[in-house]
Amino acid sequence: MPDRRVPSRGVLATPVGRWSQALVSRALDVREVAHTPPRAISTTFWVVVLLALCIGLRTLTLGTYPLSDNTEARYAEIARIMMSGGDWINLHLPGDVVFWGKPPLSTWFSATGQLALGANEWGARLPMLVLAMMVTLIVWRWLRDSSAREAILGVAVLWGSAVFFVSAGAVMTDMALTVAVTLSIGGFWWAISGTNLTRVRVGALAFFVGLALGLLAKGPVALVLSLVPVAVHGLSCRGAFRDVIVLPWFKGGLLVLSIAGPWYVMAELRSPGFLEYFLVGEHWSRFTQPGWTGDLYGTAHEQARGIVWAYLAVGFLPWSLLLPWLLIGRRRAARQIAGGTRSERSPDTALLVAWALTPALLFSASRNILWTYVLPAAPALAILAGRWLARDTRQGVVHGLVATGLVLLTGGAAALLLSQGSVGAIRSASGVLLPLLSGGHKASEVSFLNALPYSASFYTAGKAHDVVKDEELDLWLRRDPKLGPLHEHEFLVTTEKSWRSLSGSRRSQLHVLFDADGYVLLVRAGPAG
């Protein structure tokens, strides 16, 4: 019989290594330990270490790079205005413009973070990491009911996915939506699979609370993302429909309305027209009209129909490239990835597959979307992948592949952070404004060409607000009093793209002080004329 003992060398031979390996063993229940070779426990240890490094890297880097235009800086500035202005009902853009584009849940989190930690990157982003950890706990709990190894692999796949890793520290609405959808579907599963009355009641409560939070996170689209998988489960097999109809829909519906309804009513009363714009414009016109011109706050970019499927593949990197390799030479794995035989299929398979596919199916015909729209699918994909990986008998191969994915993701993220300036990964006016302000100058001395970046408003606490239109640039260069107070401003900020597009005669009248993160700080090159 071959010797299956783990060689006592390297890190595992140290007291810390032995303690950590024992900790992994304790995470597995008695039956798992009995059926898990020591070498497999050793490789599981390395998966846990790499997972911890992945989460640690995301946490420690939250404040190491500036908030980027347009999305991150916009939502961070909306939260800063909420925190400083005290209006926790209506969302506002710079210039006291009411923002009708999104409900407030993610803004409430970010504003609370800034209230506690200050108006900075940490304050704006840390709440998004907290939301990501909530999703992680639900995924862990779902898989832990089967085995700790499934849970470890599922969480590793979740955090090793590009879209989840990025979104875990990005100021956007998508992570709040993902928490709501995950809580709702997770609660539904716990309610119908519960073995005791307490679990059933808690699960049902979580299901309806998740629906309400979804309405506060993203609006009616959250109901579609949560209820379509539930409906698919109800139609998937005999008896499943009963699981759906026995839920307390009337009482639960009242709970949803009591949680989410008051904000919608108050938002409409304070800002008439909100409901029409948000429900019709943002939830119908945006996704059905190419290049929708009704967007009040930005530009609706036309994308090819079906691009969301490419976003799903990219968002699930590196797993969308790595996991198929496990199919080679393994006929049984091919059956499992398709759902397995009837005897092997888990009762929640239809629910999870529908959950994973609903975001892409919902937005397949849409042409105005972002890649983060697939984020709500990440928990379902992680649960399915974790379960499928755990059933592979080649445990060493599986752990090696998962470790490779985590190394690729973590290494790629670290490399991007180190080279973000040179590769143009960040676009933020903070790179040119903060050195200027630290040198004793005021934000009131700065004008912005054509538009005020959200990052400029955030990093100057709303003090930067003066804009010189392109047709006014010649007046600014001549210090023409016709321009009003702006003619006295000494500095001009524009994007690198706009700077390159200026005519030669205009560029000759400007001097570049410095450029950073996609923006250029300029002064007049010659004396006033």
Q: Summarize this, please?
A:
With 529 residues, the chain is mainly α. 60% of the residues lie in helices and 6% in strands.
Structural class: mainly alpha
Low-confidence stretches: 1-12
- Mean pLDDT over all positions: 86
Overall form: globular
How many helices? 26
Rg from C-alpha positions? 26 Å
Helix content: 55-70%
Q: How many β strands by DSSP?
A: 7
Can you summarize the main beta sheet? Answer: 5 strands, mixed
The main sheet orders its strands as 4-3-5-7-6
How much beta, percentage-wise? Answer: 5-15%
Distance between the termini: 93 Å
Report on this model:
The protein has 529 residues and is mainly alpha-helical. Among the domains are: 135-283 and 306-412, no CATH class; 430-524, no CATH class. It contains 26 helices and seven strands. The chain has helices spanning 15-27, 30-34, 38-60, 71-85, 105-117, 121-144, 148-159, 162-167, 174-193, 197-217, 221-236, 240-245, 249-270, 274-288, 307-315, 319-322, 331-337, 349-362, 378-390, 395-418, 420-423, 430-438, 454-459, 473-477, 496-501, 504-508, and strands spanning 91-93, 97-99, 446-449, 467-468, 491-495, 510-516, 519-524. The strands form two sheets. It has a five-stranded mixed β-sheet. A two-stranded antiparallel ribbon has the order 1-2. A hairpin with a 3-residue loop joins strand 1 (91-93) and strand 2. The model is unreliable at 1-12 (pLDDT under 50).
